[in-house]
Amino acid sequence: MGDPKGFMKFDRRLEKQERVEDRIKHNKEITLPLTNFEYGQQASRCMSCGVPTCHAGCPTGDLIPTWMELVEVNRWKDAYKILNSTNNFPEFTGRLCHAPCEEACVLGINENPVSIQMLEKQVVERAFSEGWVVPDPPLIRTGKSVAVIGSGPSGLSVAQQLNRAGHNVTVFERADRIGGLLRYGIPNHRLEKWVLDRRLQIMEKEGITFFVNANVGENIDIKKLEKYHATCVCVGSTVARDLPIPGRDLEGIHFLLDYLSQQNKIDMGDDLNKMGIEHISAKNKNVIIISGHPHGWLGVAHRQGCKSLTNFDLLPEPSMGRPCHQPWPFWPERLRTSSDTDEGIDLQFSIILKQFIGRKGKVTKVQTVNIIFEQSYSGRPPYMKEVEGSEKEWAADMVILGLGYMGPETHGILQKLSLELSPRTNVETDSKYMTSSEGVFAAGDARRGQSQIVWAISDGRQVANSIDTYLMGKSLLPVKMEGDLPIIK
Fold first, then answer.
1. 410: β partners
2. First to last CA, the chain
3. DSSP code for 435
4. pLDDT tens, residue by residue, 341-396
5. CA distance 109 to 82
6. Which domains, and CATH codes, for the chain?
7. By CB neighbour count within 10 A (0-12 exposed, 13-18 middle, 19+ buried), where does 423 fall?
């Protein structure tokens, strides 16, 4: 038992970050670790609540008070065992998750919540450094085979779970490398790719087969899926939302994923010139980003040497604290900043683009207008109204559209498998994650729409249980767990 009054003695602390002038010179992770003693102090802030609502906040149901207490008393290996029992990839969520568990932390009612995400990353990194994370192939194979289409966080999660159940799992990825969003949608200063490759090497040694440049339904015949006993579609939500306003056809306007994937290829050693790809660079440019609240990926422009960086958000500026209509433990829509805010970015709220302005076919400016939201007396949601006289032009040599994603690509594999779609063009499934085609399941963003990485991992774990039950009649694979576990002896 640790210090039961730790939350009264210690304030919330997070890892420090490199100085801005140093970190924008490289594309590596920017956090600086604390000492083991300091991590123990932070773990002691967990109150081991009788009703730990952090469980409900976490989509994977992490048993946070249990492994937190183990960290506090320096039992890191046991802490990793507990963490690994509910989360396949804590090294990803510990870096990239929006941490809904922290928003649901009981201490967060009137204090700063426990630093759960930081400690989660340290537990798994300690496990890797000590050699506790090793391949664990199943002792017995069932003779059943499963095809997983897509290698993002949901695809990797379902693949690992089904392999643990003894099934032969093959993952098909249409890109040239495994990882999906983790590989090409997250910049290196948020997730260095050796972290991903380290996990993939373990999964291969556990017996999972990976194929790249394998676009099922295109260069891979869809009939090849017939030899598998089940198929899981984890193709993500990749149809980017566009901005069809005057001047959209000008050069210099790019979708976010196109921009990020290029920089990730460069960081992995690819030569874009040899690949016949024109480099999208922010060097010496005034960059406008159309997105929601700023996220860590905006820092790519600083690392490329942009002249200025401005982020436009349609919605009003959120409050720093919880809005009154979103009390604890609900997820609050408050102002969330990240490392890129310190690096220099002009945040503009309640603003929309009216047109792109160009010269000689290239974008040079954008025209905007401020807006307000007025309440409708008819009971409908608030409607958007332009503020008269607020028109403004901004210098823009490059525009990045980060407006989110509308769903999976409906042609190709979804069409050839005759999968029914929801009104929002996501793959429709029943309560067991099965699609309209017998033996075909779906998980992740392709099923639920654009969401967080932790939800994709959770979806993969849930669907793995359903597929295992479909193949074997029952399953011992865990799904989201409720309650707590006893301390490991």
1. none
2. 13
3. -
4. 888 889 999 999 999 999 999 999 999 999 998 887 777 788 889 999 999 999 99
5. 26
6. 6-129 (1.10.1060.10), 145-238+406-472 (3.50.50.60), 253-401 (3.50.50.60)
7. exposed
